[in-house]
Amino acid sequence: MLGDLLQKLNLHCSWHRLYAVLTKEFIQMRRDRVTFAMIISIPLMQLILFGFAINTNPKKMPTVVIAYDYSPFTRSFIAGLKNSDYFMVKDDVKSEAEAKRLLATSRTQFVITIPSDFTRRLLRRENSQILLEADATDPVATGSATSAISLLAQSVFNPLLQGSLQYLQNCPRDKSNSFIDNCSSPVNVITHANYNPEKITAYNIVPGLLGVVLTMTLVMITGMGMTREREKGTMEHLLSTPVKPLEVMLGKLMPYVIVGYIQVFLILAAAKYLFDVPFHGSIILLVLATLPFITANLSVGLTFSSLAKNQLQAAQMSTFFFLPSLLLSGFMFPFRGMPYWAQKVGSILPLTYFLRITRGIILKGNGVAEIWPDFWPIVVFMVVAILIALKRYRKTLD
Questions:
Q1: Measured between alpha carbons, how far is 196 from 199 in angstroms, rounded to an integer?
Q2: Secondary structure (3-state) at 68
Q3: 3-class state of residue 213 by DSSP
Q4: Helix pair angle (245-273, 201-232), 10° resolution
Q5: Fewest Cβ atoms nearer than 10 Å: which of 73, 182, 278, 287?
Q6: All structural domains of the chain
Q7: DSSP string of 127-154?
Q8: DSSP labels for 170-183?
Q9: Closest CA relative to residue 91, chosen from 72, 112, 73
Q10: Residues 6 or more apart whose Cβ sits within 8 Å of residue 314
């Protein structure tokens, strides 16, 4: 049928010649080891990352409990938190100031405060309350846990309030004034969604796009740009001039630094005027903190350009770096919802730390002290990436 169609179109096709060309392409593909490896590895990597590392219902979220009441009711509630699937209680934090700092630096997801008059108000039926403060910069990470804590309070306190204390439960009565087993929790859990009270998704996504766009564009354009120079032979012309190799490399990379900052200001302007994202921190601090992140991505792109034989390979290598950064950094899915091994891989990537810095400065108003735990890993990655890039680039020039 295909042969008849080709004859009608006056196209003469030899199946032997077609098979020869097809075989030649497969042989050429197999000889190109980088391309062949990408064909196999990228689908496998996508399968593993999407299948194992992605979790929209994170559990065992780090939680700090500040208890000013030490009654058996309080101890039972804390024990219930520790046995819950959604909370992982840190016992080493005792002060409220330390808990607030951990919440601001994203080292904990929840701070639960039990007031000193908790038991007294409970026994007097005076609307006993527990305060839950959540880091709502990532609404997906807090949604399930905040819904579960009210049910947890009910399951903890209702069994304790039996016998002579059953009157403390919020239980309806029948006509004979007997309690009906349909009791609500006698404790009111007050939830404060800090930094994003309305849980607007754009407040989480748009600041994160700052790092995602820089990673995607800078690594790729640097890798492909330097490879293109080598393919066209213009790199050899530059090296034949009195310009030193280091000066050539810096001169090639500096324009991309400027391009990176142009992207930063465009995204910040869009965040402000299109998405109405509040900006609580210092823009100068954000600009300064962005420099090592830009440099780190440019160094990665430079390393890829020294390894790639052509622009296609450079683009494939960039994808191999960008895909884990996108999925394992906490941009699309909660970082703490991923399995342990995925969190370890994500902890190597600079985008993981830059997302915390941008969201911390923009949404929380963090300063130098708050962003420092996430800033120095980017600097370390930048230094290592620069050293590797210089070594590979020197070999390429030689």
A1: 5
A2: coil
A3: helix
A4: 150
A5: 182
A6: 61-194 (3.40.1710.10), 201-397 (no CATH)
A7: --EEEEEEETTSHHHHHHHHHHHHHHHH
A8: B--B-TTS-B-S-P
A9: 112
A10: 220, 223, 224, 226, 227, 304, 305, 308
Q: How far is Cα 95 from Cα 106, in angstroms, rounded to an integer?
A: 17
- Contact between 255 and 298 under an 8 Å Cβ cutoff? The reply is no
Query: Is-above-0.85 flag for pTM?
Result: no
Q: Which residue has the tokens 């420099």?
A: 291
Kindly state the tokens that stand for 319: 């994808």
Q: What is the residue type of 354?
A: F
pLDDT tens digits for range 193-236: 899 888 888 899 999 999 999 999 999 988 888 778 777 777 66
- The answer to whether residues 348 and 300 touch, using CB atoms and an 8 Å cutoff, is no
Q: Which two tokens stand for residue 59?
A: 């559990």
| Structure-token pair, residue 336 | 């703490």
Question: What's the length of the chain?
Answer: 398
Q: Give pLDDT tens digits for 240-296.
A: 777 776 777 788 788 999 999 999 999 999 999 999 999 999 999 999 999 999 999
